[in-house]
Structure formats: structure tokens, C-alpha cells
Design a protein that fits this description.
single chain; alpha/beta; Rossmann fold; Arc Repressor Mutant, subunit A; five-stranded parallel β-sheet; four-stranded antiparallel β-sheet; elongated
Length: 231
């Protein structure tokens, strides 16, 4: 059975570079959709599934950062690589704040771009495999996210959908930081202030459920999110 090609959305307004990127990536086995501005790219993203996005920062109609924000509202997880002629630190910080997976400053070699894309795709494949997990051992608790049940010593706590989804993300990031914005976009659909306060309420409920095991703690990580710790 032939392996399905990885689909890339490329947004680059420089026609020479865009054509070069398109030809090179297709020669390396990718299926590409080349767009010339941010507006075209967003329309393409709305119309089909892509495995990875490569966006120029400075584009007409809609710049790469604004495009990334709009794309993240549709799919919070799709990897994004920014291309820019600027080498300013502030631009890189802005890109990574928007959830960029990587950032290349022009001029760059096609080989370097390819290696970075391959590294991102390997990482995201590993993350997708982990995301399929439904049962977790959290300290003395057993958590079944498919049944929405948290069990301790035979006692079962049924969870609401949002309690279940939030505990699952915390479990997938056990002993690591769960980014607040990522969790909000994944569960609530956006990271508005109202939804953020709602998530805090659910965190309080989960802390109450987990009190049965003193080794467990959900801690706030200032400016970042939450961490489910097993001591």
C-alpha cells in the first residue's frame, strides 16, 4: 500500500522563492499547496486538511503572524514554521508566542528547511500516538477517559465532559507543564478571559477529586499553565 503524502500549506509572496520551495518540497515527496498571501492561505486551510504549515511573515492581504492566529483558531495543533527576512529578536519571540514550531531567517538552505520539517513531523507523530491513550494510572487512581471515570480503591467518580478532557490533558502532560492557552483552545475552542476563569473552576474541582492521594497535586505554573505532579 502506497504511503500517503504529507500535505504542506506554503504561504510565500516572493514568487521566485515560493516556486523554488514548491518544486523542492514536491521533489522530496510532499504534497504542497502554494499560496501567495495570507488571505489565500487561510481560505486554503479552511478548505482542506494540512499536516504542516510554512508561512512567510511579511505578506500582503494578511501577514504571517495574523494568519497563524486565524489558523490556530481552526486547528490549535497543526505545526507552523515561519519564514522571514528579519533577524529581529522581537519577531522571533512573537512567532514563538503564537505557537510557532520553528523559525527560519532568510536566506536559508533548502536542506536545513527539510531537516527542520522532518524533525517537527517526527515529534508531532509521536505526540499523536500518545494522544490516543485512554487509560491512565495517576498515583493510586485509575483514570479511564473513555468511560469518564476516576477510580480510587473501588470508588468511582464520574466526570463531566470538560472535567474529563482537562484531566486527560493533564495526564498526558504528567509532571510537565500543560500550557493554559493550549488547553483552552483544545477544550473550550478559544482562550478568552471568560473561558480561562471557567477552566480555573474545573481545576479546583479536579483538585478536590484527587485529594484521596496525598502524592498528587495540581500546581499553578505562573504565566504558563498547570502541572499535575506525582510526588
Amino acid at each position: 500500500m502506497e504511503k500517503e503524502a504529507i500535505k504542506l500549506l506554503v504561504a510565500e509572496d516572493d514568487h521566485n522563492l515560493g516556486d523554488l520551495l514548491n518544486e523542492y518540497l514536491q521533489a522530496k515527496g510532499f504534497e504542497t499547496n502554494l499560496t501567495r498571501n495570507g488571505k489565500q492561505a487561510l481560505e486554503a486551510f479552511r478548505g482542506e486538511h494540512f499536516d504542516l504549515c510554512v508561512f512567510d511573515v511579511m505578506m500582503p492581504e494578511k501577514d504571517g503572524f495574523t494568519l497563524a492566529k486565524d489558523v490556530r483558531k481552526i486547528n490549535p495543533e497543526v505545526p507552523i514554521v515561519f519564514l522571514t527576512a528579519k533577524a529581529m529578536k522581537e519577531d522571533k519571540i512573537e512567532g514563538f508566542k503564537l505557537g510557532a514550531d520553528d523559525y527560519l531567517t532568510k536566506p536559508f538552505s533548502m536542506e536545513e528547511l527539510l531537516l527542520r520539517l522532518q524533525a517537527i513531523l517526527r515529534r508531532t507523530k509521536k505526540e499523536r500516538d500518545v494522544q490516543k491513550q485512554e487509560q491512565f494510572e495517576i498515583g493510586d487512581f485509575t483514570f479511564d477517559s473513555k468511560l469518564q471515570e476516576l477510580t480510587l480503591n473501588g470508588s468511582i467518580q464520574k466526570l463531566t465532559s470538560k472535567e474529563n478532557d482537562l484531566l486527560r490533558l493533564l495526564s498526558l502532560h504528567l509532571n510537565d507543564v500543560l500550557d493554559r492557552s493550549y488547553a483552552l483552545n483544545r477544550i473550550w475552542g478559544d482562550d478568552s478571559y471568560f473561558n480561562s476563569r471557567s477552566m480555573d473552576v474545573y481545576i479546583t474541582k479536579l483538585r478536590k477529586y484527587l485529594r484521596g492521594d496525598e502524592k498528587l497535586e495540581i500546581v499553578n505554573v505562573h504565566g504558563k499553565g498547570f502541572k499535575l505532579l506525582v510526588k
